[in-house]
Amino acid sequence: MVIYYCSTSLNMTFISVREINLCYNFTLEFMYFKKITLLFFLIFASIGYSQTLSLKEAVKTGLENYGSIRAKNNYTNASKETLKQSRRDYLPNLNLSAQQDYGTVNGQNGPLYGFGGLGVASSGLPLPEQNWNSAFGALYLVNMNWDFFTFGKTQEKINLSKIDVQAKEKDLQQEKFQQEIKISAAYLNLLASQRLLISQQKNLDRAEVFKKTAVARVKNGLLAGVDSTLATAEVSKAKIALNLAKNFVKEQNNKLVDLMGVAPQDFVTDTLFVTQIPKELIKTNAATDSLHPLLQFYKTKIDYSNQQVKLYKRFYYPTMSAFGVLQTRASGFENSYATDQHAFSRNYWDGVNPDRTNYLVGVGITWNLTTPFRSSKQVSAQKFVSQALQEEYNQADRELKSQLTFAEDKIKITLDNYAEAPIQVDAAKRAYIQKSTLYKNGLTDLTDLTQTIYTLNRAEIDRDIVNNNVWQSFLLKVAATGNFDLFINEF
Q1: How far apart are CA 67 and CA 63, in angstroms?
Q2: pLDDT tens profile 178-215
Q3: pTM as predicted
Q4: Hey, what CATH topology would domain 20-82+157-305+378-488 get?
């Protein structure tokens, strides 16, 4: 027996002279597989992809455009402005006032309370009867008051505003981190769906090739008519699977679009990295002392609540104030009006030209003795809030530790599957090659061939999923550790 060597791009097979024709047919089939790159291009073109998107670009765009991140960025800026305002609250009050009036100055002996600010500040002689002598008058006033010592209330307000800024910043950071994880997961899902689409297209092409072969052999009387019917059914089944894969791609693409905050469009993902495993999985990662962004956010919430307790306690104490007044008055009534009720002028300038000035300076202390009784319950309530926040922190910490353990276990499993997937694909390809060669030469039936096509398709899908799951499990670990740089630095 003479042995010939038949080499193809996918496999090597030894054949005898009797099987040279089989090798020839099989080589033609592999010429089809060599065009797979062109096939990928046609697939992407047929579903309307318009832009190739890298993972870094997706994350960057999402952080810039996503609504909740932009909102929390504004909240952070608002808290910074509030901190500036709380610092300026320590400044003294300085009021300038000027008024010019026209009216009478009838006076009366007796008590008066200006309830609700409705009293009139007219002053004059308590004459025996009403008169309607009227003139202009004016009051010019400078008033300053300053709570210069508040037993720490002012400083605690400033400290509270500082912690509020930190809380808003930590909230923004954890929101960005969560968004980075979500975008990365959506990107990996879209990548997996597009690779599954390619596998389903390859499966359809294989089914169509053997449908043509079956139809031709049935027409020539070499096969039973049922073979062409079964081949047609397999093609329809493959088309349905392809359409489902296209729909799945659209769903994943829309999720990524929503997370990126951009207008609806189709993306082509970068597939180069997914055929490898993350380099960080090979390294021995040292433990990090940095706190998870979510735990940092909870910690600042606890600090904010504790700071509120300190502020409320400061309300137990009094407030010391300094004040000063400079007052200048003018009147159209002369100093002899007490004895001569004709000693006044209705001239405007005579009434508003200042001629009497007074000043006053002083220091005062105010202390509401019932405030400690009211504020004590506010302090107690805020302490319970702090305890509740601490419990939320502890729960989040436990969940992150559990997630990290789960991620480590999942990584081990996915790495094992990653090593087995190529073996499964290679074995399925060999079985498919053997069955297809036998079928073309009438040595087996279409049922056996269909089974190998299904096995190969399943193996290719498993390979795509396993490769993607390695990155998904690594992303899960990154989400538990809180260090997104470990993931993004892989690209």
Answers
A1: 9
A2: 999 999 999 999 999 988 898 889 889 888 887 887 77
A3: 0.73
A4: Outer membrane efflux proteins (OEP) (1.20.1600)
